[in-house]
């Protein structure tokens, strides 16, 4: 067969999501093969393909094809709809909309799982960072406390890391101090690294301005980071 004739026979495009994950939506291998056959014929304009021809192409018994089609319908992977023609006649037509709904749900589930896996990896890195800075393993209560900051208090991991750095620079190695830093930031609506840096810069400018206006010469603080537990 010439290449031109090969292309003239047409092609069927399937979503990669379906090819990779059809078992996850409850489709068995034989059901998937039949679904592709029906979909390909539907793409060529066959509203309801001749199942005898499909059975011959698949080298299956016609009863097996009927059984597989019924399974696809039961699993809501395909549906049969009655549509009225221009002449008022009702004809059965295959619909593949249910499959796309299943794929949309699957895509959402896969995205959520990927997000959870990524968050789990970031949480492991956060625990390890605490242990390295504290110079000891965390207790189960400390693990739970850090997890609570993320899942219940909705602090970002980046913000918790910044609060940890603040505590270490102030040579305080406990979660209560870090918790109070996070609460202080929350009251000031500080939620990002940029906002923390901006607040530190504002604090430094305030100290410099105060020093300029104070006639008594005093040495500026060497540590630029602010003790957030003190008042302004």
Give an account of the 3D structure.
The chain is built from 10 helices and 2 strands, in the order αααααββααααα. It is mainly alpha-helical and 232 residues long. A two-stranded antiparallel sheet has the order 1-2. It is elongated, with a radius of gyration of 32 Å.
Overall geometry: elongated
Number of strands: 2
Strand residue percentage: 5-15%
Low-pLDDT segments, ≥5 res: 220-224
Helix content: 55-70%
Question: N-to-C terminal Cα separation, in Å?
Answer: 84 Å
Tell me the major beta sheet: 2 strands, antiparallel
Radius of gyration: 32 Å
Strand order of the largest sheet: 1-2
Order of helices and strands: HHHHHEEHHHHH
State the helix count: 10
Summed over residues and divided by their number, the pLDDT gives a mean of: 85
Would you tell me the structural class of the helices and strands? mainly alpha
